[in-house]
């Protein structure tokens, strides 16, 4: 599939982000999207063809592969990339709404349509909460679906139509496990960045509101 739309989305969001948000965009683009496209996709490309069991019973390999890999690592990773990036569309849409509203009234309604304040601040905070939530949900899915963050060399399968308990071998397990750890590490880093940006914005605008009320009170 083409990842151009996701690249364009991240580039657009970068214009309206804080400093921490720009670091998040860089991490997603360089350490997740590019790694996925350039390296990881090729490692899992023939995972089904290279999955081998020590019996030739028709259908046995297929059901065993489906049993141990209900969703491919690489497809789940792709879905995770899409889901954690799309909440940023809320910010882009809100800025576009501001620009269209100002154009419709033919006057400058905002100091800057991309400035994070008022309604755009709420939209930005919601997008951060959604991105953090998606990251945590997908890490939980990876852990539950594959019984932890590991790729075993050998799995034993007794699912019908296999005649008995058979040994099945996964291709390139060490390499896949390294990239799985890399995925978990980058997801954890993105969660930390999202929570840091969320705390920073809440603290910044809480202080701003407090100072504004203090000045108004003493005037």
UniProtKB/TrEMBL annotation:
The chain crosses the membrane at residues 21-39, 77-97, 118-143, 178-203. GO terms for biological process: cell-cell signaling. Belongs to the connexin family. Keywords: Cell junction, Cell membrane, Gap junction, Membrane, Transmembrane, Transmembrane helix. The keyword Metal-binding does not apply. This is Gap junction protein. A connexon is composed of a hexamer of connexins. It is found in: Cell junction, Gap junction; Cell membrane. GO terms for molecular function: gap junction channel activity. It comes from the Eukaryota. One gap junction consists of a cluster of closely packed pairs of transmembrane channels, the connexons, through which materials of low MW diffuse from one cell to a neighboring cell. It comes from Smutsornis africanus (Double-banded courser). Residues 42-75 form the Connexin N-terminal domain. GO terms for cellular component: connexin complex. It is a multi-pass membrane protein. Residues 134-201 form the Connexin cysteine-rich domain.
């Amino acid at each position: 599939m083409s990842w151009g739309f996701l690249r364009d989305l991240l580039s657009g969001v970068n214009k309206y982000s804080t400093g921490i948000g720009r670091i998040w965009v860089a991490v997603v683009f360089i350490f997740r999207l590019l790694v996925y496209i350039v390296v990881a996709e090729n490692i899992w490309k023939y995972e089904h063809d290279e999955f081998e069991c020590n019996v030739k019973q028709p259908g046995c390999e297929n059901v065993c592969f489906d049993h141990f890999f209900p969703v491919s690592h690489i497809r789940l990773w792709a879905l995770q990339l899409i889901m954690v990036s799309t909440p940023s569309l809320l910010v882009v849409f809100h800025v576009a709404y501001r620009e269209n509203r100002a154009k419709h009234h033919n006057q400058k309604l905002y100091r800057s349509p991309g400035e994070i304040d008022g309604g755009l601040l709420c939209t930005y905070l919601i997008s951060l909460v959604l991105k953090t939530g998606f990251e945590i949900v997908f890490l939980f899915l990876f852990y539950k679906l594959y019984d932890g963050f590991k790729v075993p060399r050998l799995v034993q399968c007794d699912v019908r139509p296999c005649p008995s308990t058979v040994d099945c071998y996964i291709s390139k397990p060490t390499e896949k496990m390294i990239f799985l750890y890399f995925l978990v590490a980058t997801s954890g880093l993105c969660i930390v960045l999202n929570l840091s940006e969320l705390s920073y914005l809440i603290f910044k605008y809480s202080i701003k509101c407090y100072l504004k009320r203090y000045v108004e009170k003493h005037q």
